[in-house]
Amino acid sequence: MGKHIQPFDNKNKAIIDVNDEVAPLCYFNQVYLSQGETFNHSIDGYESVIVLAGGTCDITLTKDGKSEKFEAIGQRETIWDGDPEAVYVPVGYSAEITAVSKKADILIAGGKFEASLEPFCIRQKDVDIVQYGSDETKTHRKIKHILGQSNADQRGRLLVSELFTVGAGGWSGFPPHKHDEDRILPDGTEETLYQEVYQFRFNPDIGYGAQFLYEHEDDFGPVYHVKTGSVIAIDKGYHPSVAAPGYEMYYFTIIVGKTSKSLKQYFDPNHSYQVETIPGIKDMIAKFK
After folding, report:
1. Cα 39 to chain center, whole Å?
2. Distance between CA 165 and CA 79 in Å, rounded?
3. Do residues 3 and 22 touch, judged by C-beta distance below 8 A?
4. What is the mean pLDDT of residues 39-65?
5. CATH number of the domain encompassing residue 193
6. Reduced to 3 DSSP states, what percent helix, strand and coil does the chain have, rounded to the nearest 5?
7. If I label 67, which of 77, 116, 140, 179 is the partner at 20 to 30 A Cα–Cα?
8. What domain range includes position 52?
């Protein structure tokens, strides 16, 4: 149903590799470079996006001997200092990433896909930002969509975003929802199958939170204690999370569909009434469709 990978030095090697046993649709790598260092990235059968969590890089994409260079990607020092920038890497392309800044913190998200599309970059002005919830409902958060609705015609089934709890402490992924089967319900609403990978970070760095996973409405756990660098992979079930009081929580989110380009969620019936009580949540849901 899911797994927690505790923080470790991955030495620029994939944390969630191709054909992962839990989330085979997804791929995730974290890469750290110093100024002038280069990392080569290529994944057969997966579209991907290279996101600058911090620092600046030049990124060159190549296919069939033809190259395109995207310069000065990344305009923030850390994830807490501004909006992301990224480069989309279609199936069949290789990427050469070169650090321009003193240090570069790079997040690479991938998803299985069949077709080869065209490369493009996402600048800060292109990031689609939505904020919803409230302090009163303990659900206040901000989502920065890197691959989503605004560029749906340029990507496959890979959705990538950065999610922040707004303020110190609070819930995310609430009301609990799932997206683990392609189906049309009797009332005509739809659910689509998407697998998901998160990497968590906290501010201050000593912060922590909890990731809940449960397959059926009345199940118990498991619950994972997550800290900065924790990675969660999810293939099915409901998956809300919470940040401890006093800490801001961030998670880099990779969501990959099996058949649909549109993420359609099914809310836990025990808690779905809160879709009507949490401010702005319907706008958030629409941004994933």
Report:
1. 21
2. 13
3. yes
4. 98
5. 2.60.120.10
6. 5, 50, 45
7. 77
8. 2-287
